[in-house]
Design a protein that fits this description.
Elements: H1 2-24, E1 30-34, E2 43-44, E3 50-56, E4 59-70, E5 72-81, E6 92-93, E7 101-108, E8 116-122, E9 130-137, E10 140-146, E11 153-161, E12 167-175, E13 185-196, E14 201-203, E15 208-209, E16 217-226, E17 229-238, E18 241-250, E19 263-264, E20 271-278, E21 284-290, E22 295-301, E23 304-305, E24 310-311, E25 323-326, E26 332-337, E27 345-350, E28 360-362, E29 368-374, E30 381-388, E31 398-405, E32 420-421, E33 427-429, E34 433-437, E35 450-454, E36 465-466, E37 470-474, E38 479-489, E39 494-505, E40 512-522, E41 527-536, H2 540-543, E42 548-557, E43 565-570, E44 576-582, H3 585-588, E45 591-599, E46 602-603
Parallel strand pairs: 33-39
Antiparallel strand pairs: 1-31, 2-4, 3-4, 4-5, 5-6, 7-8, 8-9, 9-10, 11-12, 12-13, 13-14, 13-15, 16-17, 17-18, 18-19, 20-21, 21-22, 22-23, 22-24, 25-26, 26-27, 27-28, 29-30, 30-31, 32-34, 34-37, 35-36, 35-38, 38-39, 40-41, 41-44, 42-43, 42-45, 45-46
């Protein structure tokens, strides 16, 4: 009977996997393999593996971390090149705390994709756990920092990275009831934010609270950052009646964290384990698991949430963690448990207005739990990991992994966002008002219901946005800005976009096409070497309203960082200059030159030839035009 039972179980697993493959009916679309191997003394803790893409040795890699139990728990990791046929490395230790490390989360710095940041909880009891941080680079983990030392319970940390490289962590901060002294009153506390450079990392000395209701449990936080904004979601309420809450903050230099007042984004049914992402238009997408096996979804499109959240599935599935991610093309991906007996996960994709595809399945045929998802990566595949649970076990034994080929966008006829500018080029002068007109925009088969402008000016976030068809904006500081128009066809549920990069300058543009030639000038009783500097005025100056008033010639020795010395000032119509009197070609070629102009009373920057003199070979003749200028 025991052998028969094993045979039937094996047959069930094989059949389940075969059915899943047939359901997807796309050969080589889904590849599944096991990362850890179960044995008597090496078991993967069930709560939360995490996955991220990073760079190493010039290659795109993916890394998975998880908690491994060998008496105590420690964090382990495995990595491979980001391609479906690559092999996972042998699992190795990532944390070296002496107590009980679990629930890791990893995030990669977009400004330095070779660095992976990891946060995790460590501690033996509920009142002794703290949050720790470490970094992976140069093929090893470095350092271990305790973020905050509390006398209470810190757990389930999450991490994200802002545009300026600031690392942000959020976690549950549990304090005991002041009367009963028991852990029955949970607060959500934001972790410290910190900045990092090549040498060291420094965390703030205090945390910042996100949730506000001290009478409810506020747990299972998730945090996501994009640009200068951070978004947080968590479940809050009393046992059996929790809802998904949302808050956000904008990074402002020199200011403490200030999270907005929390709002509810889920239904009133028991909503757990919310996850959040934001697209390139700063639209927000949240999913969660509901009591009764449903998975919910809500979105905020240009500041407005759905009045009635949608359901991702329409049947009862056993509740579990739910995951959402978004790729570089603003395509959403969601993974959630697909059935009531936990034998597979379901996934869907959607455009950034939440038009979800038909559900697909991923599974290895065993009881599965705790999925995680990576879609924001450089490959054509998204990645899913999960744990399997042997019958009768209290927690999982192995970490499994699947790479799934991303689907092509099935939506056609997106609105065509287009606009004109009052400026005649994409280079403009600061403090000059520019008018943008979205009238050329169209929406095939539908109607444009709203216009949304983002002028890309992080120095003035209050005025950086507009919802008018024709708008004007003045850039007060020089720099590179991306102005984006998004048009919304609400009837068809589609967004069209156009982005133009503007260069805002402080004054006129320097000359272009600067060249240097060295030649020898011969006379009856003399011979000297001359550097001839030539240039062309940038024609954009006329479009910018600048008229050249003077031309300046600058010189310094090659290979030095000394200040430029101005050696001549010429009239506005000059196109060349001779620097004379060198006794040899070597003496003449010891200098480099730059040219600038004055226009509108403002002096331009200095134009050079890539910082070096471009010398022509000596023709051995005489330049008849080598007169002083």
């Amino acid at each position: 009977m025991r052998k028969l039972g094993i045979y039937l179980l094996t047959l069930f697993v094989v059949c389940s996997f075969s059915l899943v493959a047939q359901d997807n009916s796309q050969a080589d679309e889904i590849k599944i393999n096991r990362i850890t191997v179960d044995n008597a003394g090496f078991r993967s803790h069930s709560i939360m593996s995490e996955i991220a893409e990073f760079e190493e040795d010039g290659k795109k890699m993916i890394m998975i971390v998880w908690s491994e139990e060998t008496g105590l728990k420690n964090i382990y990791y495995s990595k491979k090149e980001n391609r479906p046929d690559a092999t996972w490395s042998t699992p190795a230790r990532a944390s070296f705390t002496a107590v009980n490390s679990k629930t890791p989360d990893i995030v990669v710095d977009p400004n330095n994709p070779g660095v992976v940041h990891m946060v995790w909880a460590d501690g033996e009891t509920r009142n002794s756990k703290d949050i720790f941080h470490s970094r992976y680079f140069d093929k090893a983990w470095h350092g271990m920092t305790r973020l905050i030392s509390h006398a209470n319970n810190d757990s389930l940390p999450k991490a994200s990275v802002l545009a300026d490289g600031t690392i942000e962590a959020a976690w549950e901060y549990v304090i005991p009831n002041p009367v009963t002294k028991q852990f029955d009153n949970t607060y959500l506390r934001s972790g410290n934010t910190w900045t990092i450079n090549a040498d060291r990392s420094v965390w703030d000395t205090k945390g910042h609270g996100i949730s506000t209701n001290s009478n409810h449990h506020a747990t299972h936080v998730d945090i996501y950052s994009r640009g200068v904004r951070s978004y947080a979601v968590w479940q809050e309420g009393v046992s059996g009646a929790k809802v998904a809450m949302f808050s956000e903050k904008i990074m402002k230099e020199g200011h403490d964290d200030h999270w907005t007042w929390p709002i509810r984004v889920s239904t009133l049914k028991h909503s757990a384990w919310p996850e959040v992402v934001a697209d390139s238009h700063e639209n927000v997408h949240v999913i969660w698991a509901e009591l009764g096996g449903k998975y919910g979804y809500n979105r905020r499109i240009y500041g407005k949430w759905l009045d009635v959240p949608e359901a991702l599935n329409h049947y009862n599935a056993k509740r579990d963690l739910v995951e959402i991610d978004i790729d570089a093309n603003d395509m959403l991906y969601a993974v959630y448990r697909g059935d009531a007996v936990n034998t597979y996960y379901s996934y869907k994709s959607a455009n950034n207005l939440g038009r979800w595809s038909v559900e697909q399945k991923i599974s290895n045929g065993k009881e599965c739990t705790y999925a995680t998802l990576l879609a924001n990566n450089s490959s054509d595949y998204f990645h899913v990991t999960w744990s399997d649970i042997p019958a009768g076990a209290s927690h999982s034994m192995d970490i499994w992994y699947a790479s799934v080929k991303k689907k092509a966008d099935w939506i056609t006829d997106y609105p065509n966002a287009d606009f004109t500018m009052s400026a005649s080029s994409t280079t403009i002068v600061k403090n000059t008002e520019v008018t943008f007109d979205a009238s050329p925009s169209t929406s095939p088969g539908g109607a444009i219901t709203s216009y949304h402008w983002n002028f890309g000016d992080l120095t003035d976030l209050e005025n950086n946005y507009s919802e008018q068809k024709v708008v004007s904006y003045t850039y007060p500081e020089e720099g590179i800005y991306k102005v984006t128009l998004s048009i919304l066809d609400k009837q068809r549920g589609l967004i069209g976009n156009k982005t133009v990069e503007l260069e805002v300058i402080n004054g006129p543009l320097p000359p272009t096409g600067v060249t240097i030639s060295t030649f020898m000038n011969k006379g009856f009783l003399y011979r000297d070497w001359i550097n001839k500097i030539e240039w062309t005025e940038d024609p954009s100056n006329a479009n910018l309203g600048f008229s050249t008033e003077a031309i300046h010639i600058h010189r310094r020795q090659v290979g030095t960082n000394e200040e430029w010395a101005e050696i001549a000032q010429l009239g506005p119509s000059e196109t060349h200059y001779y620097d004379k009197g060198y006794v040899s070609a070597e003496d003449a070629q010891a200098f480099e030159y730059g040219v600038s102009i004055t226009a509108g009373g403002i002096k331009s920057t200095i134009a050079t030839v890539n910082g070096m003199v471009s010398n022509q070979a000596d023709k051995g003749g005489t330049d008849n035009n080598s007169t002083d200028k």
